[in-house]
Amino acid sequence: MKCPTCSGIAKRGVTNLPIELETGLLYVKHVPADICEQCDEVFIPDDVAARLEEIVAVARKQKVEIEVVDYQGAA
Ligand SMILES: [Zn+2]
Predict the structure, then answer these.
(1) pLDDT band for position 74 (50/70/90)?
(2) Cβ within 8 Å of residue 57, ≥6 positions away
(3) Domain encompassing residue 25
(4) Counted domains in the chain
């Protein structure tokens, strides 16, 4: 895809995402994303964002303080 920020080329890769919760911090590793080669901007595809919301919802329920999860391995 084309980067809307700098018009560079964003290629599919993986990134690590820290997500702030009310109770703490959730760190999600190996999240598939389109990453701009030029400005390093990260774009999360819609299907991945939906999956992340589910992971966050579970973490919220568990009231995690600090948790590291692997996107690929998260149930
Ligand atoms: Zn860019």
Answers:
(1) low
(2) none
(3) 10-70
(4) 1
Q: 2 in a domain, yes or no? A: no
Please tell me the distance from the alpha carbon of residue 35 to that of residue 16, in angstroms, as a whole number. 12
Q: Which two tokens stand for residue 44?
A: 């999360």
CA of 42 to the centre of ligand 1 (A): 8
Neighbours of ion ligand 1 (CB under 5 A): 3, 5-6, 8, 36, 38-39, 41
What is the arithmetic mean of pLDDT over 57-66? 96
Cα(43) to centroid(ligand 1), Å? 10
> In this model, does residue 33 exceed pLDDT 60?
yes
SS3 46: helix
The CATH number of whichever domain residue 20 belongs to comes to: 3.10.20
**Region of residue 11 (phi > 0: left; psi between -120 and 50: alpha; otherwise: beta):** beta
